[in-house]
Amino acid sequence: MKMLITGANGQLGSEVVRQATAMGYDLLAVDLPEYDITIPETVNRLIADYRPYLVLNAAAYTQVDLAESQEKPAWAVNADAALNLALACSAKDIPLIHISTDFVFDGKKTTPYRESDPVAPLSVYGKSKAAGDDHIRGNLDHHVIVRTSWLYGVQGNNFVKTMIRLASERETLNVVADQFGCPTAAADLADALLTISRSIFSSPDVRWGTYHYCGQGVVSWHQFAQAIIDISKKYRALKVTRVNPIPTSDYPTPAIRPAYSAMNCEKITKEFGVHPVPWKKSLEKTIQEIMAVP
Ligand SMILES: NC(=O)c1ccc[n+]([C@@H]2O[C@H](COP(=O)([O-])OP(=O)(O)OC[C@H]3O[C@@H](n4cnc5c(N)ncnc54)[C@H](OP(=O)(O)O)[C@@H]3O)[C@@H](O)[C@H]2O)c1
Fold this sequence. Notes:
By secondary structure, the protein is α/β, with parallel strands linked by helices. 41% of the residues lie in helices and 16% in strands.
């Protein structure tokens, strides 16, 4: 199974590489600085030289707050590079799996978002990701776009690792309690994406399009933080004694985030047999791995 993966060093990309390597995929894993996918020639050359059966794009500009003041690089990676990949794949008739985000929604719903719900991104990051998704839909029929949310893993920077660090430095933490979503372990998402890749390898009758995949269960950032601390305390002593719930208005950030971004994952389960994992179960597993890193 010959697969090209871009953004291979990121928290999701590194997990896909780890699992795909263990499964014996023929893999070309690329990332910055050698392979900048905002450059069309780089993408065209990669695909022409390697001739993958499938491309998986895990590259993105993911610094949500910085994107508000750094619009150009955010749009270059999230929108222009997605277009480069779509055009290059289309020219060689190669399918593309691409990752998108819950931040394409405005968070005004009170029930989990479905794939067919209208997008209305609130931030530069969300707008640039939505534009990238549109480029792929408009230029490549054979695509699977998987929207995910609140991603964390062993590699890279994420909310889980930040909470563990802050909890070992401070006695009190203040965490937003009025934004709700579904935490997703990079390992679970990588597993789901590789299941989809095997469907694409084994059958031409894939139902191409947009899907949702996230952890099972909806929590606030405050509930998520409390769980991270409770689990982490089993492994190491932490300084923190209180995690205070605060409103978003007490923690202003440059980017506006959706207040509610839970996603309905029935479609991906029905089409690919991929099941969301209960968020706490995956959190336990990931924290165990994080704690094992010296
Ligand atoms: N993180 C989340 O909470 C979250 C939530 C929902 C959806 N998502 C989506 O999930 C996917 C994976 O996210 P992630 O958290 O794994 O991201 P990540 O850790 O930031 O990894 C992204 C990778 O892409 C690379 N990259 C950036 N610009 C590139 C370019 N021009 N050419 C080639 N590679 C480039 C980055 O390299 P550098 O590090 O050197 O820049 C990094 O290795 C993304 O599509 C993201 O939008 C993430």
